Amino acid sequence: MAFLWTGGAGSGGCAVCRALRPALPTYPEDPSIDEVVALLDSVPLNEELVLVGEEPTRREDLADLVRTVRKERPGAIVRIVTDAARCADRAYATSLSEAGVDRFTVRLFGPRPAVHDAETGTHGSFDASVAGIRTLVALGLWVEVEAVATRRALPHLTETARFIATSLRGVAQVLVRNPLWGDNGLVRGTSHKVHPHEAYPPVDMAADIIAHHDIPVRLEGFPFIVTGGKAPYPLTDSKLAGWPIGLALEVIAMEEGLKPAARVSLDLERTKTLAGFCRGRGLTLEQASFRHRFGPNEAGLREDSSDPRARLVYCYLAPEKAAAKAVRDADAAGDDDALGEALGYPACCRRFYARNVTAGHHPDLAMAAYNEGPADTYPFELNTLSTYITGLVFHQPHTYTCAPSLRMARDLMAALRRSEPLLATAVEHALRCHVVYASPASRISLWGRRKGGRIEVENLIPFGDAIRPDLAKVDTVELVEDAVMLRAGERVIARITAPGGVRPLLATFE
Predict the structure, then answer these.
(1) Which pLDDT score, from 0 to 100, does residue 362 have?
(2) Please, what's the b/e burial string for 122-140 (b: 16 or more CB within 10 A of its CB; e: otherwise)?
């Protein structure tokens, strides 16, 4: 698939579409037909050609452009990504088809105007796009509807899927897309980003709804385990569904007698429903008297703050009231060793934490654990470096071969396989991977074959500062001296380094 930038500026300023546009050297506002066609020189014959732009149909010469591209590449599939507003005009839509457009991709951000228009920033854009889709389908043309799961659109995703399946009959395919990262990088610092943890239940239901109506469905930009049209949700235990995976794992571990208590970090709004959940499962609930800004995976970085921006709170769950209070009191006192003991963490890992974390100094514990026992491969059950799914241990092991931690993780995995086989499969697939790790804010999960020091990449999920344009093209990853090199063929796509002159990690969990 090769992208040809067509311009067409002034489409209403959809921030998500701008972020999802392919990574190209430049984005000229109004390139000439000759300039667009010149891009074909670097494109292999018969590769699918995708016409993209701020909105291609705003070019008055679009049909001429398509004819020229078709003349240059008669055997290629030509696709256009458009809001389809102008395609509501049958004559216009027909002219594009006759000029050589084979496929139309149209994005929907919601099931009704209030949701879709809020994301595009253009009043009436939902109705216009729907009218265009219906006209294209009525003309017998191939139409893909792209349901984009932004943060604002995600709660409406199942409704969007139902709308597409029942009100837009005749579409050839539905693509459910996560804007967490794309060819043009992450939509960071905005309201658009969706973490995969949040995506599982609605994506699962949306895919089922679409597939139930015999419409092919594809997922893009979701983790490896959410592929093939179905996410590994919902849980067998319906009362755990809808809660963060980490909380579900903590509850299962306690109910299996694998740990005495749990500490989970939740948004203030979620804590309002947690009390009822705990009562239903026979768990005691205690709550911290302070709020914080950072989650439990960043222990030591939290802020005891009444700042209104600190929207997270620690909740302490346990089968026994005394156990929940012990965790709460140790956390309030700032006694890390007592806190770890109350949560059932191994003594060796508590000592490791005490050695590395002192007042005012909180090093990278993941890197410190690697340095305690460096190797190329580790058991997948102790993978705490991948961030998009909670692991099988709830603390930082002092090494990635720590025997007590590994025993705890394997006991939990055995319990999951008995009670929640779908979740067990999801967790194992997520953790059995290769990881590029430079810092807590820069890491990549990789799937593929390892050959010596090189990974042949089949799929990757980047996070934080590791996100770069063109990552979708990466086919090999290799650690070279003080950097991890991500390549497409011989071309270097990205060079990942660690702060402070430290060597980044390329570790395999299997």
Answers:
(1) 65
(2) beebbebbbebbbbbbeee
